[in-house]
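Batch job 17 of 40 flagged for manual review because the log was empty.
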Amino acid sequence: MDSGAPAPAAKGNAEKIGALQKELASGRGPASFSKECREFVASLPADFDYGLLRVPKDWSIPDGERLEIFYYGRFHVGNKAPVALVNGGPGFPSWGMYKNRLGGDALAGMPFVFFDQRGNGCSSPYPSVSMEGATDAAGFYSSASIVRDMEAIRKTIYGESVRWKVFGQSFGSTVVHRYVMLAPEGLDVGYAMGYALMSDWRDYRRVNIEYGLELQRRYFERFPEDRDCLHQTLDMLVARDCPGASTDAARMDCSGPYAGKLDASFGNPNDWPKTHENIAAFCAAPPARPATESPKEKRLDARDIAIHTIVTQEYLPLGFDPADPFACRAAWDRLSGRNDWHDLTFFQGCDHHDGEELELYRRNRTRASSYLSLAGFKDALQTHPDVRFRLYSGEIDPYSPPPYYADESRELAGRISYQMIPGGGHFDWGPIIEDIKSDQ
């Protein structure tokens, strides 16, 4: 990666979180830190390292407007190679990845770096963009900008010559794929879970719904009585609230709000006992019809606008259909003819885009795209044979199921490794952390 400028100097590269905690406790510290950020910093081990790095908002203009990127961890443990950890999103800080999944002793014995992606957490927030400025502004918060921020962090802590390992989950997996394409010289091994590249982007939603239905089928094999009671209850609710619903599509439109209120988690067998309890309660006391918000009435705040635009630019190629941006309705038409409408109710998945959301898709359709193609990623790996790449999926991940990974694992067979984690969901990273440790 050529940023056009040396990495900016860091504040507190050798300081400990404990020093920052004392500053914040006395009412001092960075003025940009929110109340939530201050509370998170206070929860970290006092012996953690941290830094607050000023980077260009637009990496093509090194001397332009600056953003602050907060990073923390244990930067040095013996002579072991460091690992950077990239959380999912976009639109989330690193805090959940650290506190809920990788805190405590999970990373013991290895040097590691977490950071809050630009726009989130203790880093500079997303801008207050309007509909008119969303496409241009959100481009500065894409995975490409995040990779450049990471390179600045790496060079600040370790210098130019030390390459690190990078683990990314969900949107973080997108960042790891992008790293191979933009900054392979800084990457030793990439570990990616929760997102993979497909040959045809229009297959994502179809695969997601099909696999969700498969997990639901497994659930009903274990709790067959739940399917009977759910079907009967949905029939009753549709007859009560939508007596004119004479087609399967109309019945699903009517039943959708109920599915949204029923906490039925089919994607993780560990949650099935609780789902079984919730379904029993739902059938025993059918709810009143939930109020729904018309898409035309839905308003997006500045943060929503930024995140919607980032997602559009990252995952949709130029020229997509703005009325059905994720090719969802086409996939739904194929599936609805082969599945019972009662079961499909829980996997409708096709938002009725209208109002401001539809306007955002229209604006982004031909103006900007950061879309990652499988062909482009393959070329990058072939050009840089020294970069190792490991791809992982969870066996029962309802968000990015194993079929997502078929194209990438097949096209890059022999160049990357692929592992499906038995019984793993979207957040089951234990085997990956063990692989990272064994690669030290």
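Reviewer: the log was empty due to a logging misconfiguration, but the result itself is present. The chain has 17 helices and nine strands. Unflagging and moving on to job 18.
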